[in-house]
Specification:
With 416 residues, the protein is α+β, with helices and mostly antiparallel strands. It has four domains: 151 residues, Beta Polymerase, domain 2 (2-Layer Sandwich); 87 residues, Orthogonal Bundle (cca-adding enzyme, domain 2), CATH 1.10.3090; 119 residues, no CATH class; 47 residues, no CATH class. It is built from 22 helices and nine strands. A seven-stranded mixed β-sheet has the order 3-4-5-2-1-8-9. The chain has a two-stranded antiparallel ribbon with strand order 6-7. A hairpin with a 5-residue loop joins β8 and β9. The longest helix has 16 residues. The radius of gyration is 28 Å and the shape is elongated. 37% of the residues are buried.
Length: 416
């Protein structure tokens, strides 16, 4: 008897029904099925973010079917059989059933097919080679996908080494899926194949590596998967400077204990040594954005030095200088790297204090400095900086008169 998924909101949404109806109008009943992550997550009663559809229709037929139904069709990957349908602002990635004709570990030449089993045979893991029709009836061509999903087993479709040689990114995906869905001991054949073929990941584009790595680090508890990745010799091929697994483990534990939001980027920083240039190098290697690069660089800074016993006044001085986000990043990394368990209460207390304090603005303008008799030019900035240093040292007094008195004292002491 065919197993049926429980009713899913995304499955009965009007936009989903419209897309499926358009395809079936062109190709007949059972020409289209939901596939991959949406089916797997529905089976596991987990949230579904993306709805992918597999179809026996070829790309020109898919485009014609969608346009005939008034649905926007975007040719996002026609050479690989993929068209994205957009209905009511919702995207649906529709891919023609296919089989690999030629692969080089990075990209594949495909041929279209109408055989569901052939399509399943070229997918990465059995739990991702699951299909479901509009009524929720499950199809498991490999015969192991449903059981794998429920057991938390990440098993390659067919021969693990063959699947990896088809696309080396599957090594990183293996550990990512372990982090998100794995339970118990990992599949020994899969793990051995990843270790044996680990050098292949160095042929991958930085963008593909970064996408998989950040998804892995976003899992609730990626520690076991990252440990296995390191043991298999994969981690340092992806991130050569990743050496501090102890701090990484501790950071994930701290985030869990204090229910702090999970930050994949900060978890990446925890794996790296406290050297700003390492953050820049890692970001460049992974082709991360400039904003992400700057955050990594700042998080791995060591000046000013943070200590768990700093006073609220000292905390404010550093937050003013670094900004609350960088301060909190460094506090979490310092806490995770601390060998003093008794200091945990102190480290923890710094976080809400920093996040709740709004750094004030120096109550003094360049025009006011000029009015006090300072010639316009570089000296205006020098006076502002000197008054600001005094103001910070006084713990940011909200007292315009005192600031103006300090300005007068600075101006009187200037040598022109």
């Amino acid at each position: 008897m065919t197993e049926t998924l429980p009713v899913q909101p995304w499955m009965v949404h009007p936009a989903t029904r419209a897309v499926m109806a358009a395809l079936e109008a062109a190709g007949g009943e059972d020409c289209a099925r939901f596939v991959g992550g949406c089916v797997r997550n529905a089976l596991l009663r987990q949230p579904v973010s993306d709805v992918d559809i597999a179809t026996t229709l070829e790309p020109p037929q898919v485009i014609a079917a969608l346009e005939a139904a008034g649905i926007r069709a975007v040719p996002t990957g026609v050479e690989h059989g993929t068209i994205t349908a957009v209905r009511e602002g919702r995207p649906f990635e529709i891919t023609t059933l296919r089989r690999d004709v030629e692969t080089d570990g990075r990209r594949a030449v495909v041929a279209f097919t109408k055989d569901w089993a052939e399509d399943a045979a070229r997918r990465d893991f059995r739990l991702n080679a699951l299909y479901a029709d509009e009524q929720g009836r499950l199809f498991d061509p490999t015969g192991g996908g449903v059981d794998d999903a429920r057991r938390g087993a990440i098993v390659f479709v067919g021969d693990a080494r063959t699947r990896i040689r088809e696309d080396a990114l599957r090594i990183a995906r293996f550990f990512r899926f372990l982090a998100w869905y794995g339970r118990g001991e990992p599949d020994p054949e899969a793990l051995a194949a990843c270790a044996e073929l680990a050098p292949l990941v160095e042929t991958l584009s930085s963008e593909r590596i970064a996408a998989e790595l950040m998804k892995l680090l976003a899992a609730d508890d990626p520690r076991p998967a990252v440990r296995l990745m390191d043991d298999a010799g994969v981690l340092r091929r992806l991130v050569p400077r990743a050496t501090d697994l102890a701090r990484f483990d501790s950071l994930v534990r701290i985030e869990t204990e204090i229910m702090f939001e999970q930050e994949p980027l900060l978890r990446l920083a925890a794996l790296l040594p406290d050297e700003p240039w390492v953050g820049v190098e890692t970001a460049q290697r992974l082709r991360l954005s400039n904003g992400v690069r700057d955050r990594l660089e700042s998080a791995l800074g060591t000046e000013p030095r943070l200590v768990s016993w700093m006073s609220p006044r000292e905390m404010r001085r550093i937050v003013y200088r670094l900004g609350a986000r960088t301060f909190c990043d460094r506090v979490l990394l310092a806490w995770a790297g601390s060998d003093r368990p008794a200091a945990a209460v102190q480290w923890r207390a710094l976080l809400p204090m920093a996040r709740s304090w709004t750094p004030p603005t120096l109550p003094l303008s360049g025009d006011e400095v000029a009015t006090a008799g300072v010639p316009r030019g570089p000296q205006i900035g020098a006076v502002l900086r000197e008054v600001e240093a005094w103001w910070i040292d006084q713990d940011f007094p909200d007292d315009k008169l005192s600031v103006m008195e300090r300005l007068k004292a600075v101006v009187q002491g200037m040598v022109y």
